[in-house]
Each structure stands twice: as structure tokens, then as C-alpha cells.
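#lab-general

N.A. 3:47 PM
ok so I finally got the sequence cleaned up, no stray characters, all 50 residues accounted for. can someone with queue access submit it? mine expired

B.Y. 3:52 PM
send it over

N.A. 3:53 PM
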Amino acid sequence: MRRSDRWLLRDISIALAAKVALLVALYFAFFATKPLLPDIAVQLFSIRGQ
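B.Y. 4:20 PM
back already:
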């Protein structure tokens, strides 16, 4: 294996790891805020009702 191939593989693996980490972070952020969404909707509707 040439040196450039090894560096290329390393860069690709780092890029993939970064993408996976970003997806996981977005996934957890979405599900962390999901329980709050109904509360926000209820508050908006109650404000409109007044």
C-alpha cells in the first residue's frame, strides 16, 4: 500500500465518522425536543384561543 493510499483511506474514514456523528447528534437533538413539541403546540393554540 502506498503512503498516499493510506492517507486517502484515513481522510475518508474521518469524513465518514464525522458524518455519522453529525447524524447521531441530529437524531438525539430531534428526539430530545420531540416531547416538547406538543406542549409548544398547546401553548400556541391556547394563546390563539384567548
